[in-house]
From TrEMBL:
Source organism of the structure: Achromobacter ruhlandii
Keyword Nucleotide-binding (UniProt): yes
Keywords in alphabetical order: ATP-binding, Membrane, Nucleotide-binding, Transmembrane, Transmembrane helix
Coiled coil: none
Membrane topology, record value: Multi-pass membrane protein
Cross-referenced InterPro entries: ABC1_TM_dom, ABC1_TM_sf, Type_1_exporter
Keyword Lyase: no
GO cellular component terms, semicolon-separated: plasma membrane
Superkingdom as given in the UniProt entry: Bacteria
Segments forming domain ABC transmembrane type-1: 10-292
Name of the molecule in the record: ABC transporter ATP-binding protein
GO MF annotations in UniProt: ABC-type transporter activity; ATP binding
């Protein structure tokens, strides 16, 4: 990540600026509704124009953030593939045969592509997913601490269910990817050995390895779904915008009817609370993408860590002819 770290930071900064503009547009809408409720003769054009300008600026900053992250991802992809190909060209033929064409192609193509997807799509979402709840919570506490505590309490319950669903996630993710790699290796082995299988074998041995790999993959999926079934559904249901909005709506209606909360403030709380709840969903997808990126980085580093052949002692010397002489061979 070091060659493109600056551009990634720029993309994340633009994403955070887009979050601030989105919140500013919600604040302008709340001010416009407050002016309309006052039944004044003047139409609140400044507030509506401010909301429009902030919305357009937020969209522009978000597009620029994704542009910068995609530029960084393409540059990182070129750098990684050049480094991998350059390193593989310095390895011995025995090392390349031991690694196998399938795993090498997976590293050069799939793992580099996984890092491309992570840098291009995840970095702006990462900044947005963490900045939106923080800024929204700060605005909620500034407007009314009771409503802020209600919104944070709903999200805390959902985060608790999500932590239960993601318990043992690293181990299950590693088992899942290992099972997928075993299935892919079995498919490649079966296809490459097809002429030999048709000549000397009935296919039972080779196809049996593929069938056992599929069974192990099914066991891993079943264990994962069984362990995270209820907690994941509960977390997804609670972390959605609707539970937070319902809590703010019911409590706000009660306190507004009691005269303890102004209606414009209640409307602003509803707007900011929805923004905080909507930002929680990207965190769940980001966790999965981060796990995939970690595995891809580990496999790329494993290939780059292989010791290459030593450089030639006299690269400027050329052989006189194509004669090969063996000495001391028994």
């Amino acid at each position: 990540m070091r060659p493109v770290r600056g551009r990634i930071r720029l993309a994340m900064g633009l994403a955070v600026a887009g979050v601030l503009c989105s919140l500013a547009s919600l604040g302008c809408l709340a001010l416009a509704m407050r002016d309309l409720l006052r039944a004044s003769a003047a139409y609140p054009w400044p507030a509506f124009l401010g909301a429009l300008a902030c919305t357009l600026l937020a969209c522009f900053l978000r597009l620029q953030a994704f542009n910068q992250s995609h530029y960084a991802a393409f540059r990182l992809e070129v750098i990684l593939r050049n480094d991998l190909v350059r390193h593989l060209s310095r390895l011995s033929f025995g090392e390349l045969q031991a690694l196998g064409s399938g795993p090498l192609a997976k590293v050069v193509q799939n793992d580099v592509q996984a890092l491309h997807v992570f840098v291009a799509d995840s970095t702006p979402l990462f900044a947005r997913a963490y900045a939106m709840p923080v800024f929204s919570a700060a605005l909620l506490f500034a407007l009314d601490w009771r409503m802020a505590l209600a919104a944070v309490g709903v999200l805390a319950v959902g985060a608790g269910g999500l932590s239960l669903a993601m318990r043992g996630r690293e181990t299950m993710t590693r088992r899942y990817h290992q099972a997928r790699e075993q299935v892919s290796a079995a498919v490649i082995e079966y296809v490459q050995a097809m002429p030999v299988v048709r000549t000397f074998d009935t296919g039972q041995t080779t196809f049996g390895r593929y069938h056992r790999a599929l069974e192990r993959y099914l066991v891993v999926l079943t264990d994962w779904y069984r362990g995270a079934s209820f907690s994941s559904r509960f977390a997804i249901a609670v972390l959605g915008p609707l539970p937070t909005l319902a809590a703010l709506l019911w409590l706000g209606a009660w306190w507004t009817a009691q005269g303890q909360l102004d209606f414009p403030v209640w409307l602003a709380l509803l707007l900011f609370g929805m923004g905080m709840a909507e930002a929680m969903f990207p965190m769940m997808s980001l966790a999965h993408m981060i796990d995939q990126a970690k595995l891809s980085v580990a496999r790329i580093q494993q290939v780059l860590a292989i010791t290459p052949l030593p450089p030639a002692r006299a690269p400027e010397r050329r052989p006189a002819d194509a004669t090969v002489r063996f000495g001391g061979v028994a």
